[in-house]
Amino acid sequence: MKPRISKSQYLKGIQCPKALWLYRHRPELTPEISESRKFLFDTGHEIGHYAQRFFQNGVEIKGYEIEKSIQSTQDAIRNGNRHIFEATACSNDCAYSKIDILRKVRGSNKWDLIEVKASTKVKDYHIHDMSLQRYAFVGAGYNIRKSILMHINREYVKEGDLNLKELFILEDTTRIVKKQMESVADKLNVLFKVLRKRKEPEIEIGDHCSSPFECDYVGYCWSHIPDYSVYNIFSGRKLEDLISNNVIDPADVPGGFDLTDRQEIEIRSYKNGRTYSDKERLREFLDTLRYPLFYLDYETISPGIPLFDNSSPYQQIPFQFSLHVQREKGGSVEHIDFLHTDLTDPRPEFIKALVKSCKKRGSVVVYNRSFESRINNELGETYPEYKKQLDKITGRMVDLLIPFRSRFLYHPEMRGSASLKSVLPAFVKDVGYDDLEIQDGRTASHMYLTCLKGMIGEDQKESIFQDLRDYCELDTLAEVRLMNVLYK
């Protein structure tokens, strides 16, 4: 029997045929699903649940066995169901797919295919996704009218109970999907040929390894590339020129190669193993500071389905801040923190604590000002009674990212990155995140959401709250220590 190709396998294959071959022939190489990806899946399932509620009197096809799902779909149609969730079909040339909602067109024998996505707009890979779906259902004999993408309305603002008619947008993508469907058969033939090969396909690494998704096999295919290479520094034609001449190590970049100022600093620092500093630019940056200094960091959640009134899908909702206060240059620091532990909207109490803690004068030091300033702007729009105070805090912000991103100060161990997690270990050896239960902002957000949604017990919740405090406190302590590095 000819092997089937599912929708997910088709998408994997058109991104990289080698990835599909590895998935089918070398399953031991497939990594475990990461916690961040699990969270994305959970978000997708939650949105899919609400999408089903959007349609009334639907029947769901359950189970993963293809033949049974196909038969159950046909049974549901014979029983007169107009909305069928997770309907399954397979074309004669073995392309099979589920569809989130199969909707009967009233008074006809036609059907609409409605695919639900957690995104807020139509993306290119959605069209490839939907073209394979349409191909499978048409190939199975279904009379398909429209292909519709059902996605989240970013402009929706929750007021009271969720309004599903406003939360979702149903966008007709029939024309572009039908156009894309014309090439599906050819793509399938290529992928089937790849799968029949006994030998692993030879495909060079490149941008396709991370677009539109990070490939599961990057660790395997990139194993010959060192952690820091020309891929970290260059892109486009410059990168192609280096790779074509077998230049992988930045130390091997030839003299006279066309470099930007930042690239020149990175490569020179890497080659000689020395820290680069522009003392004049550092002094200019430090001269902008006004004591006392308030080292500030926020943690946020951005649920796809808004949890609170006056919030929108994927809006950043701050629930925690850490603040280290330093009264004078080189002086001791005092730590202040806020963490909202109730199951209510954290923003009102967050604002009150923030305004009280940041006082009225002194620089507010943040790492990546665009993030905290955007949160403050959104808070001011939602709570206009605090807008003036929030705007003043934003106006006092000084971005500690600037001297590292602009290469006023650069250490070869930064490996081309100016993120806090890269800069801190390069300059400060006695402080780090490795011993923390929570080590990054994404995990902090995920863990707080599990508490907020009541997905864990009270004893676990207290432990998570302490882990959140420890993580956020370290972020602002890191800012203090890096400021000391700039002064030195």
Give a written overview of the molecule:
With 488 residues, the chain is an alpha/beta fold. Helix content is 44%, strand content 16%. It has helices spanning 7-15, 17-25, 35-54, 66-78, 124-139, 164-167, 174-181, 184-196, 218-221, 236-244, 261-272, 279-286, 347-358, 369-382, 387-395, 401-405, 420-427, 441-452, 458-487, and strands at residues 5-6, 59-60, 83-90, 95-104, 111-116, 144-152, 168-172, 276-277, 293-301, 317-326, 333-339, 364-366, 397-399, 409-410. Strands 1, 2, 3, 4, 5, 6 and 7 form a seven-stranded mixed sheet that branches. Helix 5 crosses helix 7 (174-181) and helix 17 (420-427) crosses helix 19. The chain is globular. The N and C termini lie far apart (71 Å). The model has no long low-confidence stretch (mean pLDDT 96).
Characteristics of this structure?
488 residues; alpha/beta; five-stranded mixed β-sheet; 16% strand
Low-confidence stretches: none
Number of DSSP helices? Answer: 19
**Shape category:** globular
Helix content: 40-55%
Can you count the beta strands? Answer: 14
Mean residue pLDDT: 96
Rg for CA atoms: 27 Å
> Main beta sheet: strand number and arrangement?
7 strands, mixed
Intertermini distance: 71 Å
How big a fraction of the residues is strand?
15-25%
Quaternary state reads single chain
The SS-based structural class is alpha/beta
